[in-house]
Write a structure and sequence with these properties.
homodimer; alpha/beta; Aspartate Aminotransferase, domain 2; Aspartate Aminotransferase, domain 1; 9 helices; globular
């Protein structure tokens, strides 16, 4: 079979080296004669997996000591509920920066628990979708926290600014975590579903500053209670052990690849290759301002949408999978997370050139 | 390496045939050139996995058409919150049958949402732990539902009766589901964490009767809302796809093995082999009345607990893993779920005989 490059937005491709290792040790992990997914989460073998995963993640992100690292059930949507129920305390207002679908989904859930102040930040610059600078965001003085989603996967829009606030900043980093260095100390809480840059779907990363614990609502389900998860070291109930192990393998792979500075350079190179070609071509287009283009999710349109089906079919034949854009925006979307090699983007661009030549 | 038999209570061993298949197709599933965990949950390939898993589960358990099958995030402990928040409606009382640790854990969580009526059913018969017959359970006439956990994994106690009630019966079947046929129509809702008889940890099965939908509390996190999960076919958010796929493989394996009648015979044979030997030996003991012994989790004590460490060490050398009892009860525990072959129990009994001979 031809080499496959999988541009799925999530669940997304995982590093090939990691998958080969996971396969090799699937039925006999660490010479124990069974799979890592068949052993107790409380046994010493698995606790070593857990300790290594946390240590390596702390190294990668330079996580300060006053932040806890949690591996949770429930996905990022679980955090849409967990964040307000854990952090509002007696407050009733929270700022929610809105740049697209995922921010709006968080707002919808937050309405069960508080009055979210929706801070619309989308605008148009030079006929392109853009994000207002942070100084123009209308934050509320009464908010308990400011929530935002720095990367909107559907529109391929990235917010590069941080909110200008002294309130805790809460970030849904599901689709950008680990793609470049960040300064964790600027955030109160960061969360991310695993299925883009961390591991398989079904485990959720939460990084929470310790002063934000202890203010949970009494009706908060215990599996979403940060204080309980801190106390029980993410083992209040049986955790998704296989996903946790696999995330740990991804962290090792990232360190071996040079860490997040190296990932940043790698991701910028891939994105530039694709955006530069799209910008230079009259046959393809991307409607987002260069200052706000996502490095992870690159949507593009064909000038003639009647060719979409042919494009997708021929791309698939070339081993270029899962390029169909989200139904809300149509066209194509190439998700190019950490695990996507440069070769994959180059193969895509080569195919796009050929397709343009044949159909322009 | 010697053949390993893994008696872990959960995460537990999975069928060896399934693990071999999963390993073989881990990096190239279904000839698509990628892993099943790297593809969209909404693509046609994965939707076939989902449809097959549901169909096969419905066949195995003869699930009536007026029941929905959900695959959820959050584990059984997530359901400890979800059940009262989804089912109480405007009611404030629910019966909770209490035969041990897991029932009590469900009661603790339920106290956030209602006044649970704790129905203590443990007793002693002939000096052995036993369960009162259902006619003696003190249920409340005002309860919205009756919750029970038919198999307590720590004490190895099984409740064979069903509550005598016209209220919906809610069962935490985490450690017995699929071990024998059940009559689903007698239950309002059945839930089970996957990590014993279904698949890897991180996915949770819920089977819910359709008339119980639509009465959720407004502050219920959406990821735990049965109505939403029914409407979105368990894809309100990205599901744990790999665990779902693997559960589907386990369902196929169960059908190939002859279904749940065959499993029942297999499980009864394994349990009898172990209990009969323990009962006949003065060196080992089990403190549960035969009428209430678990077929899945068999705890046993050595007459001389000072030999526990030696027993565990020598057992491990023989490839008999994870036999240490829960810290609350001490001694040993052999969890012998569906995936444990008869050969594993026979090997354990052979070792126990040798150990008895050497140390009695």
């Amino acid at each position: 079979m031809e080499k496959v490059f999988n541009f799925s937005a999530g669940p997304a491709m995982l590093p090939q080296d990691v998958m080969v290792k996971v396969q090799a040790e699937l039925t006999d992990w660490n010479n124990i004669g069974t799979s890592v997914m068949e052993i107790s989460h409380r046994g010493k073998e698995f606790l070593e997996v857990v300790a290594d995963a946390e240590k390596n993640l702390r190294d990668l992100l330079s996580i300060p000591d006053n932040y806890h690292v949690l591996f949770c059930h429930g996905g990022a949507r679980g955090q849409f509920s967990a964040v307000p129920m854990n952090l509002l305390g007696s407050g009733t207002i929270a700022d929610y920066v809105d740049a697209g679908y995922w921010a709006q989904s968080a707002i919808k859930e937050a309405k069960k628990y508080c009055t979210p102040n929706t801070v619309s930040v989308l605008t148009e610059t030079d006929g392109l979708k853009a994000v207002l600078p942070a100084k123009d965001w209308k934050l509320s003085k009464d908010a308990e926290y400011v929530h935002f989603c720095p990367n909107e996967t559907i529109d391929g829009i990235e917010i590069r600014d941080l909110p200008l606030t002294d309130k805790p900043i809460i970030a849904d980093m599901s689709s950008t975590i680990l793609s470049r260095p960040i300064d964790v100390s600027q955030y109160g809480l960061i969360y991310a579903g695993a299925q883009k840059n961390i591991g398989p779907a079904g485990i959720t990363l939460v990084i929470v500053r310790d002063d934000l614990l202890g203010r949970a609502k009494e009706y908060l389900p215990e599996i979403l209670n940060y204080s309980t998860l801190v106390e029980k070291e993410s083992m209040f109930n049986t955790p998704p052990t296989f996903a946790w192990y696999l995330a740990g393998e991804v962290f090792k792979w990232l360190l071996a690849k040079g860490g997040l500075e190296a990932m940043k350079a790698h991701n910028e190179q891939k994105a530039a290759l694709l955006y530069d070609y799209v910008d230079a071509s009259p046959f393809y287009s991307n409607g987002v301002h260069p200052d706000n283009r996502s490095l992870m999710n690159v949507p593009f349109l064909l000038a003639n949408p009647e060719l979409d089906a042919t494009f997708l079919e021929q791309a698939h034949e070339r081993g270029l999978h899962a390029l169909k854009g989200h139904r809300a925006v149509g066209g194509m979307r190439a998700s190019i997370y950490n695990a996507m090699p440069l070769e994959g983007v180059q193969t895509l661009v080569d195919f796009m050139k050929e397709f343009e030549k044949a159909h322009a």
